[in-house]
Design goal:
Distance between the termini: 52 Å
Order of helices and strands: HEHEEEHHEHEEH
Strand content: 15-25%
Largest sheet: 3 strands, antiparallel
Oligomer: single chain
Number of strands: 7
Shape: flat
Number of helices: 6
Strand order of the largest sheet: 3-2-4
Length: 199
């Protein structure tokens, strides 16, 4: 349903009637928001991504040969990130659980240059292309029915488009979806840790 039709405008007005922003509670400049997880583009993208990862593994097993060689790096209890074995540490390192890093070197690719062709053939053969079309169609229908839609004010909607949401503690400032709270609502110890890491 196109957003400029009379039918959509009536449906939108009905959906927004008597509602406030689901995040901040504002009743000004409301809009209908479908979370990204339910958008047809996201649904299609997630299936394609999982299929691509699976096919990479199939292609690797069937057409490629690798050799593992030492990279010259290791990590251990006192220095858990990979670093050159020749690194001189300021203090005596704890070599507990010492791990040597190996990297894989491609020796042979019997179908080199045909990855894309084989991938698209595999999508057809396994019915994944059909599945993507079905799930995308279902997501479009759900979006039009407003099944997963929520009401947001324009300010909160803009934040959502930047992968942010409202802080659950103060319900005033916005934060990245990867964080639990906004910076101001963090305990003092966490703020100090964060500032220390920045310096």
């Amino acid at each position: 349903m196109k957003r400029n039709t009379k039918e959509w405008k009536e449906k939108r007005a009905e959906f927004l009637k008597g509602k406030t922003c689901a995040w901040c509670g504002s009743s000004d400049s409301l809009c209908i928001h479908t979370p990204r997880a339910f958008s047809p583009t996201q649904v299609s993208s997630e299936i394609y991504s999982a299929a691509y990862t699976r096919f990479r593994e199939i292609y690797r097993q069937n057409y490629q040969k690798f050799d593992s060689i030492l990279s010259g790096k290791h990590r251990h209890k006192s220095h858990p990130t990979w670093h050159k074995a020749s690194t001189v540490h300021k203090t005596e390192p704890d070599h507990t659980n010492l791990e040597e890093q190996f990297i894989e070197v491609l020796l042979e690719d019997s179908e080199e240059g045909n990855f894309k062709k084989l991938y698209h053939e595999w999508l057809e053969e396994t019915g994944i292309k059909e599945l993507i079309e079905e799930e995308t169609k279902k997501a479009v229908e759900e979006r039009e029915s407003l099944k997963n839609a929520i009401v947001l004010c324009k300010r909160c909607h803009f934040a959502s488009l930047r992968d942010m949401d409202i802080c659950p503690k103060c319900r005033n400032r916005y934060k990245s979806v990867n964080y639990e709270t906004c910076f101001d609502c963090l305990p003092d110890e966490r703020k100090a840790e964060f500032r220390k890491r920045q310096n």
